Amino acid sequence: MMKQENKTTNDEATPSPSLPGLAPHDHSRRTLEGHTRPCEDCGAVNWDFDVSRGEITCGDCGLVAEENVPDPGAEWTNRDNGEDRSRVGRPMTYTLADKGLNTTIDVRDLNTGIASRHGMSSQARRDWRRRRVIDERSKTRKSRERNLVKANQFIRDRSGLPAPLQEEAARLYRRLSGEGFVTGRSIAGVTAACTYLVARQEGLPRQIPAVAQAFDITEKDLSRLIRQVSRRLNMHKITAPDEYFDKFMSDLGLEPSIRTPLDELWTTIRPHDDVWQGKKPMGVAAALIYKAATAAGTPRTQSEVCAVANVSEVTLRGLLRIIDGLLDKIRQYQNLQ
User: Fold this and answer.
1) Is residue 102, in this structure, part of any structural domain at all?
2) Pick from 42, 49, 37, 46: nearest CA to 11
């Protein structure tokens, strides 16, 4: 059997230089691009590159020789939290039926001067228009895909939600469609229910009459679908009146300074569930805003408040009597103590 020779690398064979007055080092020589000279503090040539911090440090004494160093490796950007780390193309989106993964032939590239500047003849443009029609029809050949296209268009055009919430509403609709819940039901009604529930979950509640009007359905149908979808997706939540404060104050043109006494009034009433739970949160919010605005010297009429909250004046006056009775009881109890 041949005897294996012990070979040493150049890094191990080269002794670590040392500065005058310092003890010599026995560590291996490790250099980096731009850092081949000894450390100014300990004299060792043992440089480390911390990729996460972007720092080049001495492996012996820890001196930071350079910081904010760019990472020379490949940048893998995963926008969808999946296993695919490809950097090609736009991120997936649920607001499109194909999640934005299909190639689209833009009609503007065929009908404007861009085609002529690129040397396309009129015959070639006609051929590509025909191919574009065939391509669009092939993407919606199945009824489920056509339903997704229509539902996503409803969400984009009528929901009035920010883009991230539109994405969540489209994801909920796609899930319901995959489970067969949409079959036999109105596409506009299910998308309206998803819109209402997503807004409620994220603290941006919408009123049922406003959502029903935007999606052109009846309030009764929307209320029924909201109950069915919330049970199906386990999205039950009690909407508190304070979630409507900002919107109603903005619609009434009230000063932001009213928010402080309004929050104090709500803090007093909130522990008494029997007063506000089971009642329209919009009506309770309207009653509290009416009292806070009146006490602050910037009153609004009952008709103005009711128009914003979409409740009747009879309902508003009834809630005001209940709230006033509760406040009187609280004052009496505090006086007894």
Assistant:
1) no
2) 46
- Is 221's pLDDT higher than 90? yes
Domain containing 33 — which CATH number? Answer: 2.20.25.10
The answer to pTM > 0.85 is no
Residue 96 located in a structural domain:
no
What pLDDT was estimated at residue 101? Answer: 65
User: Where are the strands (E) in the chain, listed by range?
Assistant: 47-50, 55-58, 64-66
Q: Are residues 219 and 248 in the same domain?
A: no
For 297, the domain range is 241-336
Under DSSP, the state recorded for 189 is H
The rounded distance, in Å, linking the Cα atoms of 174 and 246 is 32
Instruction: State the DSSP string of 6-70.
Output: ----HHHHSPBP--TTS--B-SPPB-BTTB-SPPTTT---BEEEETTTTEEEETTT--EEE-SPP
> What is the C-alpha to C-alpha distance for residues 122 and 106, in angstroms, rounded to an integer?
16
* Cβ-contact 309, 282 below 8 angstroms: yes
> Per-residue pLDDT tens for 310-324?
889 999 999 999 888
> Could you say which of 208, 233, 258 is where a domain stops?
233
